[in-house]
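Pilot study result, target chain (310 residues):
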Amino acid sequence: MPNRSDPPYESDRPTRSRTVVTVVHDVAPAPAQRSSKACLVIIYGADLGRRVVLDGSPLEIGRSVKCELQLDQESVSRHHARITWDGHRYKLTDLSSTNGSYVNDELANERALRDGDQLKIGRTILKFLWGDSVETEYHEVIYKLMTFDGLTQVHNKRFFHETLDREVSRAIRYGRPMSLVLFDIDHFKHVNDTHGHLAGDALLRQLATKVRDQIRREDVFARVGGEEFAVLLPEIELPGALQFAEKLRRLAEVSTFRFEDVALAITLSLGVARLTPATKAGEDLYRDADEALYAAKQGGRNRAEVAVRK
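Predicted structure:
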């Protein structure tokens, strides 16, 4: 079966003009005696899990080898952003970069940083940790990286397949229903080629947030490929799973996703499968849903197909 995921990102969108609104946040300064000890942790991108210690000295981020934190990506300017300590708090300043610097998905020229903020520089996402429990927080972040995708903040492929095997075995043992929905974004490569990979990243993140709002606590939602997602539905028969898939398809079709001043319209193709007497393990259920997803793509996209296995 052909691999529907896009090839590794090779280029980024060209330089273009932008209007940037600098938001001034009313953040009370920390006490002067508060320690300047803090760190950045890479939660998405190359060197996943790397910790960069902040000790109060200026830290420049960029593609240049002269930067204290070098991020070798085309979407990162040679001198992209700088983090400084003013005696009370850390501050991020964008250095007139081509693609901008983001804090919690907001484009920022200058921003006071708070513990837990997420910084996006190019296609790298870093988590800012600062406070009395930096070491504990760091270990918690590393633990979360084992199970969550840093970009979309939903479960990752490794966690999903481990859970799938366990839950399918349990459902077979006790004779309980279970369904699986796989879906991906139609023509996602066109989004990247037209608007750039930063727009593609924003689209994935926004879509994951919308889908997460539609699932139950017991469902398992994960990113399992470049633009491919899975939702495992315990205790759900095929009609309910198909209804859920159609709800996701419609949600994507009527929603507008945005990256800066660009509106992105998308559709989804979905594959739906259920446990059958022929299902022996999690990989069987996944293969059925994957084949149904492929049929949806071949059938014209923006549709849900059901696995035909008896």
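One observation from the pilot: The helical segments are 134-145, 157-174, 188-195, 197-212, 238-254, 282-298. A full batch analysis is planned for the follow-on phase.
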